[in-house]
Design brief:
single chain; alpha/beta; binds ligand C2E; binds calcium ion
């Protein structure tokens, strides 16, 4: 008997089923490629497993059997180290049993009545072919720390549960540990491992109480595909509590994103959104739970729609450029000095859409340069047109997005813009948001320096919302400092805010920069800025952003003042 082990050159399969007809059928399917052992119940099966533990390539296991059923067999095989490496395929007529079988570590299942013979053979082959690297698969199937499934196995099984169990309604949960890399760095890998182990432990405990499977899908990310839970906050608290017990010195914070079951949505998509929900609450220790809901879904659908509609909108010229004036408030009366071009989208079905809705969206995927070029083109043409009509050159500033600054053709494009419209470089000003400046210093600064050398005036937009230091500011290529709106908002009521604005204006003066305040809505704000020495003001107090036809009235008014001055 023991001799034959060495002689065996075909993989050995154990078929366990109480029905003779099933054993025979599987025998016929497998006999050309495998050596086969048969058992009629769990008890027989286990003794054969014990006897052939080193040579068994696979067990095909019926679940419902007299004497000892398949679940009990799996239970035992899982708990004995030497057996736990033998893969099991479950034979079942009961769809709902598959989930439990997978949870218990089955590799696959074959449904009864049996599928096409080739399908069964292929399934068995797929797994036995892996058996040579048996340790390898078992190591890769379960994560060694959490003992949950590894990424690809988790998603493979989730996919199957979804595909074969249409009646199961499983939610997707993603768990993440805040700042896990710092926890590792500060406390050592051992400690980090312990955290993962304990969390895995609690997740498995949870899964033993409910329907579902769990995996560690990335370093510090866990995924759970399980029956809907009544209270996700309570579930998160439960996991958090386990982690709190690890150490009283190190605080560990979990966050959770949930995407509830949706008819027909496959796990991959379900988990994508659970992950998105989870990353929304990154760093939010007060509210570490986010459930993907109807409003997020709506928002996502709207975003998708806007992304699809962008190109046709450009072709159909649905984008309209509005202009908002900037007034020089140091002259009496304040004089129209320039304007900012601000885009609007006149969508045929969704109506007027403000840039706040689509600019961040397009910035996120590089499409913003399409929009920006459109605006630059429009603005340049407009400046040329006004000059022609009124003999009056009103400089217009346009907004540059961070992504524009990465475009190697940017300088050339802007140069062309000026030349094609027979403008002067002074006629188009460039607004660059503060965060773009501080983002990636050197390269960006070189680029902006080059643009200034051509003759463009560059404004730092939203100044004070980012983190530039006074020190950095002095070496930045800049002409204009445009204070973030938030500084102006409360200057009438808060002495503190007013002093801050004065400080910014001092800095601008010290650095020889022109200072602009935006978001100025009241006369009071305007007066305070005037006496503090602010050069230019933009805001509803003077005018909202206007379409070109209406803006022309401001130009005409300005020309009248000029004429009066001349008298
Ligand atoms: P921003 O560059 O800071 O533009 C100023 C925003 O403040 C504009 O909003 C303007 O309408 C608004 N605003 C002006 N005066 C007041 C006021 O007195 N009170 C208040 N509460 N708000 C005022 P808008 O037009 O909705 O634009 C929002 C942002 O979208 C802009 O912020 C800018 O970052 C971006 N944006 C607009 N057009 C473009 C564009 O063509 N290209 C790029 N890349 N970004 C653009
Ligand atoms: Ca701006
Ligand atoms: Ca701004």
């Amino acid at each position: 008997m023991t001799k034959s082990k060495q002689l065996r050159h075909r993989p050995l399969v154990l078929v366990v089923d109480d029905q003779e007809i099933n054993r025979d059928t599987l025998g016929i399917i497998l006999e050309d490629d495998y050596d086969i052992l048969y058992a009629e119940n769990g008890k027989e099966a286990l003794s054969l497993v014990r006897e052939h533990q080193d040579e068994l390539s696979i067990v095909l296991l019926d679940l419902m059997m007299p004497v000892m059923n398949g679940f009990e067999v799996m239970e035992v095989m899982r708990s004995v180290e030497a057996f736990s490496r033998i893969p099991i395929i479950v034979l079942t007529a009961d769809k709902s049993a598959e989930l439990r079988a997978l949870q218990m570590g089955a590799y696959d299942f074959i449904t009864k009545p049996f599928d096409a013979h080739e399908v069964i053979l292929a399934r068995v082959k797929r797994i036995t072919e892996l058996v040579d690297g048996r340790q390898l698969i078992s190591a890769a199937e379960h994560d060694r720390l959490s003992l949950l499934y590894t990424r690809s196995f988790f998603f493979e099984y989730a996919e199957r549960l979804f595909r074969y169990n249409k009646d199961l309604q499983l939610d997707a949960i993603v768990l993440n540990i805040e700042q896990f890399h710092s926890i590792n760095d500060l406390n050592g890998r051992e400690f980090g491992d312990e955290v993962l182990r304990v969390l895995g432990d609690e997740i498995r405990a949870f899964l033993s109480e409910t329907e579902g499977i769990g995996g560690r899908t990335e370093g510090d990310r866990f995924a759970i595909y399980c029956a809907a839970q009544p209270d996700y906050r309570a579930l998160l608290d439960r996991f958090q509590k386990r982690l709190d017990g690890i150490s009283d010195k190190v605080s560990i914070h979990l966050r959770m994103g949930v995407n509830p079951w949706q008819e027909g949505v496959a796990p991959a998509a379900l988990f994508d959104r659970a992950r998105a929900a989870c990353s929304k609450v990154r760093g939010d220790f007060q509210n570490p739970l986010m459930i993907y809901d109807e409003s997020m879904r709506q928002k996502e659908m709207l975003n998708q729609r806007l992304l699809n509609d962008l190109r046709p909108a450009v072709d159909k010229r649905q984008f309209i450029v509005y202009y908002q004036p900037k007034y020089n408030i140091q002259s009496q009366p304040p004089r129209l000095s320039s304007a900012e071009a601000l885009i609007r989208w006149k969508h045929p079905e969704l109506g007027m859409i403000s840039p706040g809705e689509f600019i961040p969206l397009f910035e996120g995927n590089g499409l913003i340069s399409v929009v920006d070029s459109y605006v630059w083109e429009e603005a340049a043409k407009q400046v040329a047109r006004w000059r022609e009509t009124y003999g009056f050159t009103l400089p217009v500033s346009v907004n540059l997005s961070r992504t524009d600054l990465f475009d190697p053709t940017l300088t050339e494009r802007l140069k062309q813009l000026i030349e094609n419209n027979h403008l002067d470089f002074r006629d188009i000003k460039l607004e660059v948001t503060e965060s773009a400046y501080t983002d990636n210093a050197r390269q960006m600064l070189e680029l902006i320096r080059g643009l200034r050398q051509l003759g463009f005036e560059v404004e730092m937009d939203d100044f004070g919302s980012g983190y530039s230091s006074l020190n950095m500011l002095s070496s930045m290529p800049l002409d204009v400092l445009k204070m973030d709106m938030s500084f102006v908002r409360n200057i009438e009521n808060s002495e503190m805010d007013y002093r801050l604005v004065k400080l910014i204006l001092d800095i601008a003066r010290y650095l020889n920069l022109c200072a602009v305040a935006e978001g100025v809505e009241t006369e009071g704000q305007m007066k305070l800025l005037q006496s503090a020495g602010c050069d230019l003001v933009q805001g509803y107090y003077f005018s909202r952003p206007l379409p070109p036809e209406e803006f022309e009235k401001l130009i005409q008014k300005e020309l009248n003042i000029e004429r009066m001055d001349d008298k």
